[in-house]
Design goal:
By secondary structure, the protein is an alpha/beta fold. The chain folds into 2 domains: 15-108, Rhodanese-like domain (Oxidized Rhodanese, domain 1), CATH 3.40.250; 110-376, Ribonuclease Z/Hydroxyacylglutathione hydrolase-like (Metallo-beta-lactamase, Chain A, 4-Layer Sandwich), CATH 3.60.15.10. The protein is 28% helix and 25% strand. The chain contains 12 helices and 21 strands. It has helices at 20-28, 41-46, 57-62, 83-94, 105-109, 157-166, 186-193, 268-283, 313-317, 326-339, 346-354, 361-367, and strands spanning 17-18, 34-37, 53-54, 74-78, 98-102, 113-120, 125-131, 136-143, 146-150, 169-174, 196-199, 210-211, 217-220, 223-230, 239-243, 247-251, 254-255, 258-260, 291-294, 311-312, 375-376. β7 (125-131) and β8 (136-143) form a beta hairpin.
């Protein structure tokens, strides 16, 4: 009718989309497609996936330069939220390429979990849950019908699902420190399960909690499974959790490929001195045959999908960082932090995790986009 128009929603072709979960399973099985990121070069350099290549969408749509040899391979396009990659996939599909768009893009990929057993004995089993895109690592420790969750992510459904699968009740939840790179799901998980929530009083939380202090122990039955060790330096309340003589959960104090940064509360030198103490006097004195398991990891590679992201205390003891004296270490930690980009929106994330600020789920999703940057070295 003249003077009117009708809006029409175009139906998306499901044949050229792949869900994040299905994409993850393909990678995990070793069936890795060519991954093409169609975001701009700046966003790609800041945060990207595995061994992806960058081919910005404007270039893809306007040129004939997309590699002809890729027609013999499976291709997955990825962008920020799945819109540009879908447009690009339609274009390439029409030209005869075997291509799919990652539904929801990096935003959806940011919420994909996988899990793997770290260790087990007659008393316990420890499972590592990993957010592949973000590099966040959390832990599910269970024994005799009970479970303790350490450093849960904002999406708590994987922990609830695991408790159901293992037929255990989540009775305690621990945050090893005030997180600055992602939103903690601990309070939400505690509300859903009725579990007790533990954090250190040395970090500035503004809600009720159970106190996590030096020598706090966590038992199931009459067996002590976790023993708290105060390890400040990343935050004043940073706490490591020794798991019998098997290993230690180090939070953000010690990573596989670095150490915790001391600068996120604008007290770099003071925190670096604490960090030196924690690394030398608390962690380096542990038995060499123990493993340590951090709360974050850098960029995932294909080798990481089927192995726990842990390392040995012996390997840590051989790290050149430990050979520095206190003054040299403090100078190194401060200068390296200044030269290392900080986590996106870390001040806002700290406010949310401390209870000072409440955001909607959509706002939280936007806030968490990007890599974790809590390590230096």
């Amino acid at each position: 009718m003249q003077g009117r128009f009708q809006l029409r929603t175009m139906k998306r072709n499901s044949d050229i989309e792949i869900s994040p979960e299905r994409f993850h399973k393909k990678i995990q099985s070793g069936d890795v497609p060519i991954i093409v990121d169609v975001r701009n070069a700046k966003d790609f350099a800041d945060w990207n996936l595995l061994n992806s290549i960058n081919f910005p969408i404007m270039k893809l749509m306007k040129s004939k330069d997309f590699p002809e040899e890729f027609k013999d391979s499976e291709i997955v396009l990825i962008c920020g939220k799945g819109k540009d990659s879908y447009t690009g996939a339609e274009q390439l599909h029409s030209l005869g390429y075997n291509v799919k768009s990652l539904a929801g893009g990096m935003t959806a990929w940011n919420h994909v979990f996988d899990n793997i057993e770290v260790t087990s004995d007659s008393d316990l089993e420890l499972i590592q849950l990993r957010r592949v895109a973000k590099g966040c690592l959390s832990y599910f420790l269970y024994s005799n019908g009970e479970a303790i969750v350490i450093d849960p992510a904002h999406n708590v459904s994987p922990y609830v699902k695991m408790a159901e699968e293992k037929d255990v009740a989540i009775t305690r939840i621990i945050d090893t420190h005030l997180h600055a790179d992602h939103i903690s799901g601990a309070r939400d998980l505690a509300q859903k399960t009725g579990a007790e929530y533990f954090v250190s009083p040395n970090d500035p939380y503004e809600f009720e909690f159970n106190q996590l202090k030096e020598d706090t122990t966590f038992s199931i039955g009459n067996k002590v499974l976790l023993h708290a060790m105060s390890t400040p330096g990343h935050t004043p309340g940073s706490t490591s959790l020794r798991m019998k003589d098997l290993g230690v959960l180090t939070g953000d104090i010690l990573f596989i490929d670095g150490i915790g940064r001391p600068d996120l509360a604008n007290k770099s030198a003071e925190f670096a001195k604490d960090l030196y103490y924690s690394l030398h006097q608390r962690l380096a004195v542990l038995p060499s045959n123990m493993f340590y398991a951090p709360a974050h990891h850098g960029k995932f590679t294909l080798d990481h999908f089927n192995t726990p992201l842990v390392s040995a205390i012996q390997t840590f003891k051989e790290n050149s960082i430990l050979q520095k004296n206190e003054n040299a270490f403090i100078e190194y930690a401060v200068q390296t932090s200044q030269q290392t980009k900080q986590p996106s929106s870390h001040q806002t994330i700290r406010q949310v995790n401390s209870g000072k600020l409440i955001l909607s789920p959509i706002q939280i999703g936007e806030l968490e986009i990007g890599p974790n940057r809590c390590a230096i070295g």
